[in-house]
C-alpha cells in the first residue's frame, strides 16, 4: 500500500467536483435573477423581501453548524469525554492537512455521521450513538475520514448556500400565497396588482419553478460530492475496504430501524453519509446519494488502483 504522503499527493484537487459546484451555484444564481425579475414585474415589496432573505442567509451561513447539531440533538464532546473519537479525528485531520474540527455525538440510534460548518476553521464532525455502537473502530475511522473529506473539498459550504436558495423559494411560496390572499404583495407597482389574481399566480408559479430547479440541482451536486468524499476517505485512510464495510453495515441496519426513528432524522439526509431510509424507499427519493452499489464499485476500482502504486 502506498505511503501516506504518496496517497495524499494522489488526492490533489477534485476538478470535476469544483466544476460541478461552480455550475450549480452559477445556475442557481441565474435562476434567482430571473425570479427577481418576475417579482419586480409583479410589484412585490423588495424591501421586505430583501430584509427577510438577508436575515435567512446570515442565519444559514453563520449558524448552519448549530442548526444541524440542534436538529440531531447532538452535543459537542471534549477529548476527556470521548478520547478515542478525538484521537481518530486528530490523526485524520493531520493527514488531510486540516484544522481539527469540533467533535459532537448525537444520541440518535440511527447509525450515521455528518459534517457541517461554513469553512474548515469553523466546522464540526458529528456521529450518532448508533454508529458508535454498530461499527468497529477502523470503520468509524473511515466514516470520519469521509466527513473530513467533505470539509476539505469545501462542498459543505456550497451545499449550505445552495440549500438556502431552495429554503427561500419554499418560504416565498407560502408567504406569497398568504400575502397575496390577504392584501396583495405590498409593493408600489399597483397597476400590475389591479385584479390581483394574475400577479399572484405568476409569482407563485415562478416560486414553484425555482424550488423544483433548486431541488434537482442540489441533488445532482449532492450525489457527486458523496463519490468525491468516498474517494477522499479511501486516500486518507489507505483502506477503501474499511469504508466499504462501513457503508454496507450502515445501509443494512437502516432496514431494521423503526420508521419513526428514520422519519425523525430524514431532514438531515443531504448531510448524512447514508440517507436515513429503508432500501425499498430509496428509489422514491430523487436521492441525495448515489446507490450503494455504485459507491462500492467505485471504491473497488480505487482499491485496485491504490494497490498498483
Write up this protein:
The protein starts with a helix and ends with a helix. Strand 3 and strand 4 form a beta hairpin. Helices cover 66% and strands 6% of the residues. The chain is built from 11 helices and 4 strands. The protein has one domain. The mean pLDDT is 82. Helix 8 runs parallel beside helix 11. Strands 1-2-4-3 form a 4-stranded mixed sheet, sandwiched between helices. With 309 residues, the chain is mainly alpha-helical. It is elongated, with a radius of gyration of 22 Å. It is an enzyme of class 3 (hydrolase). This is Protease HtpX homolog. Its EC number is 3.4.24.-. It is a multi-pass membrane protein. Keywords: Cell membrane, Hydrolase, Membrane, Metal-binding, Metalloprotease, Protease, Transmembrane, Transmembrane helix, Zinc.
| Envelope shape | elongated
> What characterizes the major β-sheet?
4 strands, mixed
Q: What are the secondary-structure elements, in order, as H or E?
A: HHHEHEEEHHHHHHH
Count of helical regions: 11
Rg on CA atoms, Å = 22 Å
Would you identify the regions where 5 or more consecutive residues have pLDDT less than 50?
Answer: none
Report how far the terminal alpha carbons are from each other: 7 Å
Work out the helicity level: 55-70%
Amino acid at each position: 500500500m502506498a505511503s501516506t504522503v504518496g496517497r495524499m499527493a494522489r488526492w490533489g484537487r477534485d476538478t470535476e467536483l469544483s466544476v460541478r459546484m461552480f455550475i450549480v451555484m452559477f445556475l442557481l444564481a441565474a435562476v434567482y435573477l430571473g425570479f427577481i425579475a418576475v417579482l419586480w414585474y409583479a410589484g412585490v415589496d423588495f424591501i421586505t423581501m430583501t430584509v427577510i432573505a438577508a436575515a435567512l442567509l446570515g442565519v444559514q451561513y453563520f449558524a448552519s453548524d448549530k442548526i444541524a447539531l440542534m436538529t440531531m440533538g447532538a452535543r459537542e464532546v471534549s477529548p476527556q469525554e470521548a478520547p478515542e473519537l478525538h484521537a481518530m479525528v486528530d490523526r485524520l485531520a493531520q493527514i488531510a492537512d486540516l484544522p481539527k474540527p469540533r467533535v459532537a455525538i448525537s444520541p440518535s440510534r440511527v447509525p450515521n455521521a455528518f459534517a457541517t460548518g461554513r469553512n474548515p476553521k469553523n466546522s464540526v464532525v458529528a456521529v450518532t450513538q448508533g454508529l458508535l455502537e454498530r461499527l468497529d473502530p477502523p470503520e468509524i475511522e473511515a466514516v470520519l475520514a469521509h466527513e473530513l473529506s467533505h470539509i476539505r473539498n469545501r462542498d459543505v459550504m456550497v451545499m449550505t448556500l445552495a440549500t438556502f436558495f431552495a429554503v427561500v423559494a419554499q418560504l416565498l411560496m407560502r408567504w406569497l400565497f398568504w400575502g397575496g390572499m390577504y392584501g396583495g404583495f405590498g409593493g408600489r407597482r399597483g397597476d400590475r396588482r389591479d385584479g390581483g389574481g394574475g400577479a399572484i399566480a405568476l409569482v407563485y408559479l415562478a416560486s414553484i419553478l425555482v424550488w423544483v430547479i433548486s431541488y434537482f440541482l442540489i441533488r445532482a451536486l449532492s450525489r457527486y460530492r458523496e463519490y468525491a468524499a468516498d474517494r477522499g476517505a479511501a486516500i486518507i485512510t489507505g483502506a477503501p475496504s474499511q469504508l466499504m464495510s462501513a457503508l454496507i453495515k450502515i445501509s443494512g441496519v437502516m432496514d431494521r430501524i423503526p420508521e419513526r426513528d428514520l422519519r425523525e432524522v430524514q431532514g438531515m439526509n443531504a448531510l448524512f453519509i447514508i440517507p436515513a431510509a429503508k432500501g425499498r424507499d430509496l428509489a422514491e427519493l430523487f436521492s441525495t446519494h448515489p446507490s450503494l452499489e455504485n459507491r462500492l464499485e467505485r471504491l473497488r476500482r480505487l482499491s485496485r488502483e491504490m494497490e498498483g502504486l
